[in-house]
Write a structure and sequence with these properties.
Number of strands: 20
Distance between the termini: 19 Å
Order of helices and strands: HHHEEEEEEEEEEEHEEEEEEHEEEHH
Number of helices: 7
Largest sheet: 8 strands, antiparallel
Length: 525
C-alpha cells in the first residue's frame, strides 16, 4: 500500500543513514585522536583503567627524576669517600716512614705533609655536597623515593631507599662549656637581689640530722645523716664536736658525699682526743644519703646536736621590684642551654636549630610561667635585631617577695661530638712513640673511610638498579595503555572508506525514497 502520509522507505533510509553517520563520526574521531577510547563515553571501564595507569606513569616519571638525583647525591659522596681513602693511605705511608729512627727536622717535614693532607681531607668532606645534601657530615639518613606500590584494593604505598650518612668530618670533640660574656646568648643581669641565710629543711640536699643527744660516751658512737643530692655552691654545713664548731662551705657541683668528706677532713684536722670519724658515702649521691660516724674510744667526746646546721643563702626579689635578665645577641647553636633559677627551681631551655635570643627568652618565659611561681610576673622584651641586640626577661615580684638565685644564671655552649675522622687531629710523628700511636690510629681511620665508600657504592648500585627497573616499568605500562586505548589506524582507514561509500548510498537511497510521493501524483492525472 502506498501512502502520502507515511513514507516508510524514507524512514528506513533515514535510519540507516543516521547509523552510517554515527559510525563515520566514531571512525573519524579515532583517526583524528589516534585513540579508540578517547573519553569516558567511548568505553567507561577501559577509560578508567587507562587513566589510572597514565597517572601512575606520570608519577613514575617523577620517581625517575628522584632516583637520578639520589644517585648523583650518593655518587658525589662515594667519590669523595674514595678520595679521602686515598689521602689517608698517603698519610699512612708517611706515618710508616716515620717509624724509622729520624731526627727532629725529618719528623717535622713528615708532620707538615700529614697536616697538609689532613686539611685536604677536611676540604673534600666540606665540599662533597649535591644540591645542598652532604652525606659525609652528620649521622642522619636520607630517603630517596623509589616506587609507588598499588595494591589490589587500589591503595597506593610509597617505597623509599634509605641511605645512611657516613660521618667523615675531621673535627675533634668539643665539651660543653660556659658561655663567655662575648658569646651569643650569654645570660647576665646588672640587677641585684636581697640576700638572706636560711636553714635547709629535711629532704634538702645536705640537710644534717642525728639521733644522738649530748655527749658521746666512751665506746659509743653517733651517726650524722647528710641528705642526698647536689648542694648549692656556698651552702654551709656545721658540726659541733669536741667543743669546737667545724663548718664546710660547698663548692660548685658538690654532692652530699663531698659535704660528708669535707666535714671529716675538717674534724680530723682538729685532732679531737678519743674521736674517730668515718664516712660512708651514698652509693648514688643523687638519691642515697651519706653518713658521718663519730665514735668515742678511750674517753667521752662532747657533742652538741643542737648546733648541727645546714644553711643556704637565698636571694629575693622584694615585692614591687624587678630583676632584668639579658641574653646577648648573636647566632645561637642548636643544643645551647640557658638557665634561670627563680622560685627555688631551675628553669632550663635548650635551643633548637635556628633559634635566636628572642626564641630563648620566650622559651624560658614559657617554662617559668608553667612552673606557677607565686606572685611572679614574667615579661619579655624582644631584641630589635637578634644578631646583635640583647633580649630581656623581666622578673617582677607582685604581691610578695620571690626567691631568686642570680648566681644560678647559666648559659652553656652545646657539646660537639667528634667527627668520624676526629682522631685525625691528634696524628703526630714528633717522637717515635707518637709515630707508633699514629700508625694504629690511621688504621682505624682507613677502616672508617673504606666502610663509608663501600656503603655509598652499594647504595648507588641499588639506586641505579631501581632506576632501570622503573624505566622498564614505565615502558611496559605505556605499551599496555596503548594496547587498550590506541586505534588501529589501518582498520580505521579501511572502515572509513567503506562508511563513506555507505554514506553515499544512504543519501542516494533517501533521495529515491523521498521521490516516491511524486510518483503517486501521476495516478491523479
Amino acid at each position: 500500500m502506498s501512502s502520502i502520509l507515511t513514507n516508510n522507505s524514507a524512514m528506513v533510509a533515514l535510519q540507516t543513514l543516521r547509523g552510517i553517520n554515527s559510525n563515520l563520526e566514531t571512525v573519524q574521531s579515532e583517526i583524528s585522536t589516534g585513540k579508540k577510547v578517547a573519553t569516558a563515553k567511548d568505553n567507561a571501564a577501559i577509560w578508567a583503567i587507562s587513566t589510572v595507569m597514565s597517572t601512575d606513569v606520570d608519577s613514575f616519571n617523577q620517581i625517575t627524576d628522584s632516583l637520578n638525583k639520589g644517585s648523583s647525591t650518593v655518587g658525589v659522596a662515594r667519590a669523595a669517600s674514595e678520595q679521602v681513602t686515598e689521602l689517608l693511605q698517603d698519610m699512612k705511608n708517611l706515618i710508616v716512614s716515620a717509624q724509622e729512627d729520624l731526627n727532629a727536622d725529618d719528623r717535622a717535614k713528615i708532620q707538615t705533609d700529614i697536616d697538609a693532607k689532613r686539611t685536604a681531607i677536611s676540604n673534600i668532606v666540606n665540599a662533597a655536597q649535591f644540591n645542598g645534601q652532604n652525606l659525609l657530615q652528620g649521622t642522619e639518613s636520607i630517603s630517596i623515593l623509589a616506587s609507588l606500590d598499588r595494591g589490589s584494593d587500589g591503595s597506593v604505598t610509597a617505597t623509599s631507599i634509605t641511605v645512611n650518612r657516613q660521618d667523615l668530618q675531621t673535627n675533634a670533640a668539643v665539651d660543653a662549656a660556659d658561655k663567655a660574656a662575648s658569646d651569643a646568648g650569654y645570660v647576665s643581669t646588672a640587677d641585684s637581689a636581697t640576700d638572706s641565710t636560711v636553714d635547709l629543711s629535711s629532704g634538702d640536699a645536705g640537710f644534717l640530722s642525728t639521733a644522738q643527744s649530748g655527749t658521746i660516751n666512751d665506746g659509743n658512737d653517733a651517726d650524722i645523716t647528710v641528705d642526698a643530692g647536689t648542694v648549692n655552691a656556698g651552702d654551709e654545713f656545721t658540726i659541733n664536736v669536741g667543743g669546737s664548731a667545724y663548718t664546710y662551705t660547698a663548692s660548685e657541683g658538690d654532692t652530699s658525699n663531698d659535704v660528708a668528706a669535707g666535714l671529716k677532713t675538717l674534724i680530723d684536722a682538729g685532732s679531737i682526743a678519743n674521736l674517730t670519724v668515718t664516712v660512708t658515702p651514698g652509693a648514688d649521691p643523687s638519691s642515697d644519703d651519706a653518713t658521718i660516724n663519730l665514735a668515742a674510744s678511750g674517753g667521752n667526746v662532747t657533742f652538741d646536736e643542737t648546733a648541727l646546721a645546714a644553711e643556704t643563702t637565698e636571694s629575693v626579689i622584694s615585692d614591687g621590684d624587678t630583676v632584668d635578665v639579658t641574653l646577648a645577641g648573636g647566632t645561637i647553636s642548636e643544643g645551647d642551654t640557658f638557665t634561670i633559677n627563680v622560685g627555688d627551681a631551675d628553669y632550663t631551655y635548650t635551643a633548637a636549630d635556628g633559634d635566636t635570643n628572642n626564641d630563648v627568652a620566650a622559651g624560658l618565659k614559657a617554662l617559668i610561667d608553667a612552673g606557677g611561681v607565686t606572685d611572679l610576673v614574667v615579661t619579655v622584651t624582644d631584641a630589635a635585631d637578634p644578631t646583635s641586640d640583647a633580649a630581656t626577661i623581666s622578673l617582677e615580684a607582685d604581691g610578695s617577695d620571690v626567691n631568686v638565685n642570680l648566681a644560678g644564671l647559666a648559659s652553656q655552649n652545646a657539646a660537639v661530638a667528634a667527627g668520624g675522622l676526629g682522631a685525625i687531629a691528634d696524628l703526630s710523628v714528633a717522637t717515635s712513640a707518637d709515630a707508633t700511636t699514629a700508625l694504629n690510629t690511621i688504621e682505624d681511620l682507613l677502616d672508617t673511610a673504606i666502610n663509608a665508600a663501600t656503603a655509598f657504592g652499594s647504595a648507588q648500585t641499588q639506586i641505579e638498579g631501581q632506576g632501570e627497573f622503573v624505566q622498564t616499568l614505565i615502558d611496559s605500562m605505556t605499551s599496555g595503555i596503548g594496547a587498550m586505548v590506541d586505534a588501529d589506524i589501518e582498520a580505521a582507514s579501511a572502515k572509513l572508506q567503506a562508511l563513506q561509500v555507505q554514506q553515499q548510498l544512504g543519501v542516494q537511497a533517501l533521495s529515491i525514497a523521498n521521490s516516491n510521493p511524486q510518483t503517486l501524483l501521476s495516478l491523479f492525472r
